[in-house]
Every structure is written in C-alpha cells, then in structure tokens.
Amino acid sequence: MRIRQIALVAREMQPVREALYELLGVDAAYIDPKIDKFGLQNIVMTVGDTFLEVVCPVQEGTTAGRLLDRRGGDGGYMVIVQVDDLAAEKERLAATDIETVWEADIGHAKAIHLHPRDVPGAIASLDQMDPPEAWYWAGTDWNERTARNAGNIVAAEVQSGDPKATAAKWSLAYDHPIDDSAGMPTMNYGTTSVRFVAAEDGRGTGLRAIDIEAIDRDAIFSAAERLGLQHDGDTVTVCGTAINFV
User: Fold this and answer.
1) Spans of the chain, pLDDT less than 50
2) CB–CB of 35/116 below 8 Å?
3) For the chain, where are the alpha helices, taking DSSP H only?
C-alpha cells in the first residue's frame, strides 16, 4: 500500500490551477471526462509517480460542495491509497462496520470509496491498477506531464477533535497499525504515511496538510512569493491546504 493520489477541493478552479502549476512546475494536467456525472470538474497533476487532483463543483448538491460549506472554504478532499488486491480488501472490510459509498471497476482500474462517517477526515479510497505502475485516473500518458519542481506525495495530515479515535478508524479501514513514536498517531504504509493531529484552526475535521518531495526549492519558494501565497518555512498554503515541501 501507498498513497498514490491526493484530491483537494476548490470553490473556483482557475486561481488554484494557476497557483499549483507555477508552484509545482506543471504545464498541463489530465481532465477526467467522466467526472461531470458527479457534478464536478477536475484536473490531475503528475508529481513524481503520484498525483495531485483538484476538484471543483459545477452544480448544486455535490459532496464536494457540502464539504466546502462545512469547512468554510477550500481544503483537502480525498486520500487515495493504492492496494495490490482490492477483492481481498473488500472481503476484509465486509467484516467491519465500515460502509462503502462508491465502487468502480473498469477492468484495468478498480476503486472503492469509504463512508466519511466511518473513516473521518477525508474520503478514503482504495484503488488497484493493472499493471500496478499505471494510473488510469490520470490518463495513459501521465508520465509526459511530470512536475519539474516537485516529486512524490509522501504524507497526508488529518485533523480532528480526537486524533487517536480518528487514527483507530483509519487503521481499521486500511488494516495498518498506528505508530505513536513520533509524538502523534501515524499510520505508515511503505514510503508514505498519514498523520493524525488535533484540529485547532476552527475548521473542524478534515485533510489539512500534505507532504511533497521538493526537487527545486528555489523555484518553489520564488513562485510562492510571486503569487503572494502564505509561506512559512518549508510550508506553502494553497487551496486551503498546507503543502510541506520535504
């Protein structure tokens, strides 16, 4: 298992797209032609061999739109973890109280989304690709659009009123233990991890930060200054989300 894609949600697509393109060194992104059935538009950017998606509601009554209202603006939306055997994961989850709210199977790509009531903080997704190195949610030519300034997404940070309880629910969802050795509950899968922290910004439970490998720090932070983005040390805030460049 590893985090393969993170999704953010924005009220307006254009300013977020322009900021992320310049910050990450991206020239183009994949647009999913089928996402309009969810009342959304999107872009999927390639960072290393992981992916950063932004979704934006284009009609009323979407899950993404309700999240924007509930959290008072742009922010984190989804954590997508790649698995080797989705059928086995589904069988395991069937023995828990965790509900699946959406499922897709197009042969070479499969996914399930878990109910945010059962796994709070973000829409938790388990996805399988055939072959594993592919990522069809970003098209078949995703490696031709790789960001110049940044590499892989390596961590996500979920905030809530009770980090330990939230971590326990994610641990059940992904069948991974929680490690407290770093001073906060953390779930590690291979080269990636999810941290669980206390909500202290008044926005409630949600995906508050992600870690991305920095390739060209000068380009990243120069872009942040040109764009007037909130910038504190190695962290730049975009789309209501703290991006830690590591």
Assistant:
1) none
2) no
3) 13-24, 63-71, 86-94, 163-174, 217-227
